[in-house]
Amino acid sequence: MAVRNEIGFMEESLDAILGKQLHLEVNAVGVDDYDAFHLFEVDGTHYLLCLSVSEGRNGFLMKVEDLGGGWYTIKDIEDDAEWERAKAASHWQDHTPVVHR
């Protein structure tokens, strides 16, 4: 799978991304705007659950890399096993009917 989404940003803390709107591409769905909704950690890695601003509020799960100095990158999860671990820990069912990667 080729990386479709990779977004860099600078903030004082990672929590500052919550509530911001991201323009993301999802396979079989297309491009849509998503709200950064839920930040969580699994085995020392941060992940971000985003919810579509359109009707249905489909979810999109992304990996967060801390580059240091207040710089972060949000990107697609490429590894299948990592995807399953992050998906299980996200509690996406509490927030959206569908979650994509």
Keywords:
7-stranded mixed β-sheet; 101 residues; mainly beta; 1 helix; 49% strand
How many E-type strands?
A: 7
The rounded distance between the terminal residues' Cα atoms is 11 Å
Mean pLDDT over all positions: 87
Overall helicity: 10-25%
**H and E order:** EEEEEEHE
User: Which percent range describes the beta-strand content?
Assistant: over 45%
Summing up helix and strand content along with how strands pair, one would put the structural category as: mainly beta
* Overall spatial form: globular
Q: Runs with pLDDT <50, length 5+? A: none
The helix count comes to 1
The largest pleated sheet is described as: 7 strands, mixed
Overview of this structure, please?
The chain is mostly beta strands and 101 residues long. The chain is 11% helix and 49% strand. The protein contains 1 helix and 7 strands; from the N terminus they run ββββββαβ. The chain has one helix at 80-90; strands at residues 6-10, 21-26, 30-42, 45-52, 59-68, 71-75, 99-100. Strands 1, 2, 3, 4, 5, 6 and 7 form a 7-stranded mixed beta sheet that branches. Strand 5 and strand 6 form a beta hairpin. The longest helix has 11 residues, at 80-90. 25% of the residues are buried. The mean pLDDT is 87.
Short structural summary:
This protein is 11% helix and 49% strand. It contains 1 helix and 7 strands, in the order ββββββαβ. It has one helix at 80-90; strands spanning 6-10, 21-26, 30-42, 45-52, 59-68, 71-75, 99-100.
